[in-house]
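can u do me a favor
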């Protein structure tokens, strides 16, 4: 059986579309006819060799997607896909049965394709690490991003007052439509002053760099900061006195190191929230498989709003 797949041939080089012969499924595996795949920073780390550098090349990338198994729409993610075994950026793939979860009726498959990474990250950071309640004042940094935009909708549906931060005023109305009360266009230096007295009890930070220290300064007493990315910089200065004098709690989230059982449970919960309208996954753009390298360019575009997905069936 043959399939077209996006293959990593050399670290740091563009992916190549190639025809791959698939072996028959072994015990505990199934064949999935893939429809859509999510694009994530972890896939870029794979390309650059920041993770899995010693794995054999060439190999198929893609850690999450949706497809059909015996006519049923399933989410396919985790259990080594795109990490310790070939991923799902292909027309078809052989995957572990354990990596498949049925998608509820009426869920847009493009949105479901982003549940495994961005959806789970948003769900767990908001409901577990951030423990958002109706009386919270939430500040979402990077609110136009793939995870930040989901967090805005989820925190709003939990009853919290939500403010979003972005570096471009062009995103303001769009973020408000997701559920934010207000949006500030600010860099790290001006973050606290731009809040005009709004004192968040919870801050979600995918940016790192100077934004993390600025978020600590902006938080009210006994607030919570959840860090789940460092897209601006992996280093930055932390105002330690403010951290301990305010009694703040700092939590970090990195999905790659989480137990599969916890991730699978979060996927089920996030899929249910998506089906019930308690969470949205905004889709910025959709690219055919042969344009996978263009999709990565869009992932790094500051004009992007929400998730980038691949059409794997085109």
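np, heres the sequence
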């Amino acid at each position: 059986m043959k399939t077209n797949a996006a293959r990593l041939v050399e670290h740091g080089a563009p992916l190549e579309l190639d025809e791959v012969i698939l072996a028959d499924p072994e015990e505990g595996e199934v064949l999935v006819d893939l429809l859509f795949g999510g694009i994530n920073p972890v896939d870029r780390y794979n390309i650059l060799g920041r993770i899995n550098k010693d794995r054999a090349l060439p190999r198929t990338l893609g850690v999450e997607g949706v497809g059909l198994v015996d006519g049923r729409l399933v989410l396919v993610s985790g259990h080594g896909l795109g990490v310790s075994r070939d991923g799902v950026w292909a027309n078809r793939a052989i995957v572990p049965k354990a990596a498949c979860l049925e998608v509820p009726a009426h869920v847009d498959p493009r949105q479901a394709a982003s549940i495994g990474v961005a959806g789970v990250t948003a769900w767990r950071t908001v409901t577990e690490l951030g423990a958002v309640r109706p009386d919270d004042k939430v500040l979402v940094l990077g609110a136009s991003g793939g995870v930040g935009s989901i967090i805005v909708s989820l925190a709003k549906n939990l009853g919290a007052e939500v403010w979003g931060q972005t570096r471009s005023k062009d995103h303001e109305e769009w973020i408000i439509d997701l559920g934010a009360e207000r949006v500030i266009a600010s860099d790290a230096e001006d973050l606290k002053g731009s809040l005009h007295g709004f004192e968040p009890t919870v801050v979600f930070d995918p940016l790192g760099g100077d934004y993390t220290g600025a978020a600590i300064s902006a938080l009210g007493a006994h607030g919570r900061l959840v860090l789940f990315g460092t897209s601006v910089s992996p280093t930055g200065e932390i105002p330690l006195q403010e951290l301990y004098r305010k009694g703040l709690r700092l939590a970090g989230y990195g999905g790659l190191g989480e137990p599969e059982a916890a991730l699978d449970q979060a996927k089920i919960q996030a899929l249910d929230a998506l089906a019930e309208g308690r969470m949205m996954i905004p889709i910025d753009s959709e690219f055919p498989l042969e344009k996978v390298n263009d999709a990565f360019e869009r992932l790094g575009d500051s004009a992007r709003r929400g998730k980038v997905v691949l059409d794997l069936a085109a």
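The longest helix spans residues 260-275. hope that helps!!
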